[in-house]
Amino acid sequence: MSLFFKFRDFFTSPIKILEQINIQPGWNVLDYGCGSGSYSIPAAQLVGPTGKVYAADIHTAAVREVQKKATMKELGNVYTILTGRKTELPDASIDIVLLFYILHEFKDPDLVLRELDRVLKPRGLLATIDHNLRRIK
Prior knowledge:
Blueprint (H helix, E strand, L loop, with lengths): L1 H10 L2 H7 L7 E5 L7 H8 L4 E6 L2 H13 L5 E5 L11 E7 L8 H11 E10 L8
Parallel strand pairs: 1-2, 1-4, 2-3, 4-5
């Protein structure tokens, strides 16, 4: 799977996508379904030392990979969360949630979206990319 992410990221630069959504220094970002950290690591660089990136995933290996990358790049603002849904983050604490390439995988997306709504600040942003969504008739 890691080879797939490298291939995808080669053609669709994560940093360019994050720059388009205007992530600012000092922001708190939640990368929900972070995978190997393709977006978590560049987001941590964009928010800088005064911001935080929470990289959440259901897979232990993914969370470990993000932490390894953050350590290698000496990013002390990346925090990993192993979760199937609940983040345990405080209410209204996140400026932007990244929900990239994962929404189609959820068995009950309403539960996940409620959790993401709970942690978003009142003027927070939910950024979603998912090429695998099916149209419901």
